[in-house]
Amino acid sequence: MSAEVTRGFDAGATRYDLLVGLNPGYHQHLRRAAQALAELVPNARTLVDLGCGSGASTKALLGAFGDVVTIAGIDASGGMLDQARAKQWPAGVTFTQGRAGELASLLDEPVDGVLASYLFRNVPEGERDQVLADAFEALRPRGALVVLEYSVAGDARAARIWRAVCETVILPLATVTGGNHGLYRYLERSVLEFDSVPRFVRRLHATGFTEVESRTVPGWQQGILHVIRAGRPA
């Protein structure tokens, strides 16, 4: 994530939860992604919430795994982390400022699972393979990565719907709620420019992940939002 994008999230942090909460599927989709990780590593005890933001995805992980897990929430935005830390958490949940691709320096030992929600489209294209390699190395053998991400490349219908929703719903709401209109204009563009799902899947395979699987979500975001699962082999 570039310094400019990080500053955008800092500026929009205080209104972020309000704005995403107006999306009726937002928390449901986070729970879906967290449950996908729980299916892959049901006995996990150590997790990373990479790009944890204000902690909504962290809450979804606790719902899927329970309080027995240790969760390291990591995000580049100090403003978003301030929002996360202001909430009540079990003792095993911590939040650390750091960038995707730096897990080797942020973790004391490998973990059982990594969740990355709405992160990879914010990673510059030339850095995505390195961030995936970093996540791969952070996992124990038989560990798993789950990515929840928007992707419309190669699907003209999905791209049209995404543009229409941004222009008629998301951007007006960002203006009304004071949620940093420029940030959500950037997010619209970042989705349109992100990898297609097949291309991202190829990145995962090239990194060494196996048993890669992608499923889209139901509802209006079908074909737009995807849960992508991958495992580190033994």
From TrEMBL:
Q: Which Pfam families match?
A: Ubie_methyltran (PF01209)
Q: Which InterPro entries match?
A: SAM-dependent_MTases_sf
Its transmembrane ranges are none
Coiled-coil residues are none
User: What is the official name of this protein in its record?
Assistant: Demethylmenaquinone methyltransferase
Originating species: Micropruina glycogenica
